[in-house]
Amino acid sequence: MERKITFVQYGCGKMAKYLIRYAIGKGAVLLGAFDMNPAVIGKDAADIVGDGYPETGIKVSAASEAEKMIADLKPDVCIIATRSTVAELEDIFTICAKNGVNAITTCEEALYPWNSSPDLTKKLDALAKEGNCTLTGVGYCDLYWGTMVTNYMGSQYTVNKIIGESWYNVEDYGIALAQGHGAGLSIEEFNKTIGAYNDYDHDQMKAIVESGEYVPSYMWNQNGWLASKLGLHIVSQTQKCIPTTYPEDLYSSTLGRVIPAGQATGMKAIVTTTTEEGITLETACVGKVYSKDEYDINQWTLQGEPDSTLICNKPATVELTCGTIINRIPQLIDAPAGYITTDQYPYNLYCIKDLNEYVTSK
Fold it and tell me: Rounded to an integer, what is the distance from CA 14 to the centroid of its chain?
């Protein structure tokens, strides 16, 4: 692709600080930025990046203006960094699809919504095909819970079980994510809400998840992604959510208050998936408000011949999320029209040159 890739940024919060800088740094051209927060509307996008970043000349517009502006600007890509469920992104995904604009998002469910919001995903898939564009979800989970694991399996003779656990600080991702993990709830409140479905079997979980009654953890979608990438056929999938606690009072800047000792600082969600091929996936995500001594962890064990463990301590999860998204953009543009999840993409590439030089379809 000879010309530069153009993009708009939808959502100018914590993630946009990196997404805007990374995209421009890889040769993409910013055409617009949108947010719902009155405190940032009207500011130059450089103010979102901070740290003395040079002015871009692009002012943050109200999210309500996105439909008209995206229709007028016709960017190659809309980068979405707002909420965590596909239902919450339906409006902006629809705007992009109807205007033929490729969209890529940090939304965790969007990585593989086929096993959590199948009806909505089919609807978005049809709209994207009609608009001849691609919608997808990408982020830290795409590589560090996904392609890193499946690529690592290429060194195994046999694999009987995949065990994964990843920690992240909910303070880094905003209040919606912190509340979704139960941060600040009493143990009783946690068990009545987030943990209320721990004893549900496969059919019961599938029914409440797909109906939209219950939003599962990120590993629910991740196990679906892994099974699809590996060609596994799922027999059953269940989830248990366990509150995390801390023995002392813990201040949360995101919640804006102290979490008393013994109350939930977040949760550990464990998703267990069995397959026809005999491989079991037991994956856990631990999202909580960190104490001063805690840090991000990403650990995966393959049980088989041989047993092996891959550990990545203190990954810069926010920056790695944003870097993965930006490096996926050429593949997004090259992908078929529709809602195409990244298990259908080639493996991630590090883009040494400007992004447009990796686009082959135009």
Answer: 14
Q: Which residues pair with 162 in a beta bridge?
A: 281, 302
The answer to whether 188 touches 88, Cβ cutoff 8 Å, is no
Q: Within a 13 Å sphere around the CA of 205, how many CA atoms are in the beta-carbon half?
A: 22
Residue from 158, 165, 132 nearest 298 by CA: 165
Last residue of a domain, one of 264, 280, 305: 305
**What is the overall mean pLDDT for the chain?**
96
Q: What's the chain's Rg over C-alpha atoms?
A: 20
Nearest to 274 by CA among 229, 221, 306, 237: 237
Residues 6+ apart with CB under 8 A from 257: 184, 251
Is 104 found in the same domain as 17?
yes
97-128: burial string, b at 16+ Cβ within 10 Å, e else: bbbbbbbbbbbbbbbbbbbbbeebbebbbebb
Q: Which domain holds residue 221?
A: 157-305
165 and 133, same domain (yes or no): no
Strands (E), the chain: 6-10, 29-35, 60-62, 77-80, 102-105, 134-137, 158-169, 234-244, 250-252, 257-259, 266-275, 280-288, 297-305, 308-313, 338-339
What was the pLDDT predicted at 180?
87
Comparing CA positions, the residue from 232, 228, 265 lying closest to residue 248 is: 265
On whether both 72 and 181 belong to a single domain, the answer is no
Mark whether 189 and 223 lie in a shared domain: yes
Using one digit for the tens of pLDDT, what is the confidence trace for 277-328?
A: 999 999 999 999 999 999 999 999 999 999 999 999 899 988 999 999 999 9
Mark whether 272 and 352 lie in a shared domain. no
Looking up residue 204, the CATH number of its domain turns out to be 3.30.360
Pseudo-torsion of CA 229, 124, 32, 80, nearest 10°? Answer: -40
